[in-house]
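Researcher: Next sequence.
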Amino acid sequence: MQTIPRITVEVPVLKIGSTPSDYEELGSYVHGLRKRQGLHMTLLHIGVLEDFSRDIAEWTKGNTSTADAIQRTVAWLPELPILGGFSGQAERLVVLGGGSVYGLEVEVPQQVRDFQVFLVQALRELLDGLLVDNVDDFILSSRALGFRYPRWKPHIAVGRPKTRGGGAWEIAPLAIDFGASRIRNRQFLPAIDAG
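Model: Next structure:
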C-alpha cells in the first residue's frame, strides 16, 4: 500500500550561488549532495496527512474524527496566501535532524519570517477549529508535524555529513534565489466532500 507523501508549505530554490560549482563545492562537506533541482526551504511541515489526522483524533479523544481532520485540512491548505519570490544568503552549514542531515542556514528577509509566523498562527487556528486544546503542546508533540524546536530555523537540507558529530561549518557566502511558496505534493491530497 502506497502512503501519501509528506505535505509541506515550501519555497523552491531557483538559483544558488553565481555558478554551478559554487553549490558543488559543498560536496567536500557532504555525502550524497542533493541535486540543485528540487532543493527547497520548508516554511511549514504538516507531514503525512493520515498521520496528522490520527494525531488530532487521538489528542481530542475522538471528538474530532480522522475523516473530519483530513477534510478540514485539505480545504484549509489551498486558502493559505502565497509568499512571492525572494533572495537570501547562506554562510554556514549546520547539522539538522539529530545529526543525520546537513543544511545551509539561510538568512532571509523579515517578511519571510513574518510569513512563517503567519503560517504557524493559521495552523493554530485550524487546530483550534478541530477542537484541539493546548494547541502549542500539540504542535510540539505531534509526530506528524515533527516540530522539534519552538523556533523556526530557515534552512535548505543538502545531504549527509561526512563526519559524525560534525558541527557548523563556515562557508563562502552563497546568494540564493527562491520562488513563490507552494504546497508540496498537493496533487496527492484527496478530493474534499462538497456536501
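Model: Strands lie at 7-16, 30-31, 40-47, 86-96, 101-107, 155-161, 169-178, 182-184. The mean pLDDT is 90.
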